[in-house]
């Protein structure tokens, strides 16, 4: 699957998430409890697994991924990815070779 960056401004991306994200009804599922409430590792993993399942069918998944890659969140599940996974994805993308414009297929 190929997902390119959107041309939406950051504010418009946030609006799209607020209006159409599957997680908008239960944001704590994706962010976890309050920072001052301890969450056992097993409970956190179970919560994150459920959050990933919600993300799988989300109508604004691509916008969520774009937003998360731009803002670099410090916690939570974004587009089904943890903060650690998002960091690795950004690192992997930076290591991809640039594709020259002349190498792109010509429009028919």
Name a few traits of the molecule.
single chain; 108 residues; mainly alpha; 51% helix
Task: Provide an overview of this structure.
- Keywords: 4Fe-4S, Cytoplasm, Disulfide bond, DNA-binding, Iron, Iron-sulfur, Metal-binding, Transcription, Transcription regulation.
- Residues 22-88 form the 4Fe-4S Wbl-type domain.
- Its cofactor is [4Fe-4S] cluster.
- [4Fe-4S] cluster binds at residues 23, 55, 58, 64.
- This is Transcriptional regulator WhiB.
- There is one protein chain.
- With 108 residues, the chain is mainly alpha-helical.
- It has one domain.
- The chain has helices spanning 10-20, 27-31, 41-56, 61-71, 83-94, and strands at 77-78, 81-82.
- It has a two-stranded antiparallel sheet with strand order 1-2.
- Strand 1 and strand 2 form a beta hairpin.
- The two termini are 22 Å apart.
- The model has no long low-confidence stretch (mean pLDDT 84).
How many domains? The number is 1
Shape: globular
- Major β-sheet annotation: 2 strands, antiparallel
Q: What is the assembly state of the chains in this entry?
A: single chain
Radius of gyration: 16 Å
Based on secondary structure, the structural category is mainly alpha
Number of helices: 5
* Helix share, percent: 40-55%
Instruction: Kindly report the spatial arrangement of strands forming the biggest sheet.
Output: 1-2
Overall mean pLDDT stands at: 84
What's the β-strand tally?
Answer: 2
Order of helices and strands: HHHHEEH
- Strand fraction: under 5%
Q: End-to-end span in angstroms?
A: 22 Å
Furnish the topology, listing elements before pairings:
Elements: H1 10-20, H2 27-31, H3 41-56, H4 61-71, E1 77-78, E2 81-82, H5 83-94
Antiparallel strand pairs: 1-2
Helix pairs in contact: 1-4
